[in-house]
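Feature request disguised as a bug report, sorry. It would help if multi-protein outputs had a clear separator. Right now it looks like this:
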Amino acid sequence: MGYISMKRPFMHPCFDCNIIQTIKKFSTKLSAAAGSVYLTADQGVWGSPEESNKLYNNLYEIIPGLKTFREEYCTER
């Protein structure tokens, strides 16, 4: 008596590659988005006004000339 073959039906060889590439792209984008949200939450962007003020002060210390640039070019006259 014969048996039923459990082989996969024939598919083009690139079919599996496309699925793997799609999963890699999606997971990379998801990781970047999740990392961005985590980093901004950790730094205080989504927190209280005091945490946001602390973040801006840290940025002013890290980037020289940022505060004077902001005062010179970004204020209403």
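(second protein starts here, but nothing in the output says so)
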Amino acid sequence: MRTRIVIIIVLMITLIGCIDKKKQSKTPLKTENKKEENYTTKIVLHPSSPKDCGMNFKTFFIRFSSDSTFQISRIKFPLKMEYYDVYSSDSTSPIEEYIKVENYRFFDLSIDGEAEDRETNRFTSEIEKKKEDTYIYYQLGIDNGISVKFQFKQINDCWLLESIKDDSV
């Protein structure tokens, strides 16, 4: 009897989750075209983008780090990502990709404070202010070669993740 109740509850949660996703997908996305070095990009702005702008970077980053819905609304898509293919014969040249909104995965940066105490993949994290409107969030490995830079820029009073550069080896 308990097993049936658990199965019914799990099915209800799954169905409710599907219904919510259908509602979210019906919300139109705002788009604007932008040319960058002979590469036309379409910047997709999530419908909630205009809300919650005007916050300082620290407040923004705390929310961005842990709230997946807020995070996806604060990314400049397509998201520029650079990394090195260490298994390639030409591992000296970075690979540049542009991640579309539908291929984006949530980065849970809220757990990065615990990364120093792990047994593997240990890293420290720090934030550096480059300009008044630009911050870099670093993940720097401890004896393991991790080196990732998340660049944030303030555009129209909203902080956006502009690019990710993974220099890990």
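Even a blank line would do. Unrelated, but nice: The longest strand covers residues 75-83.
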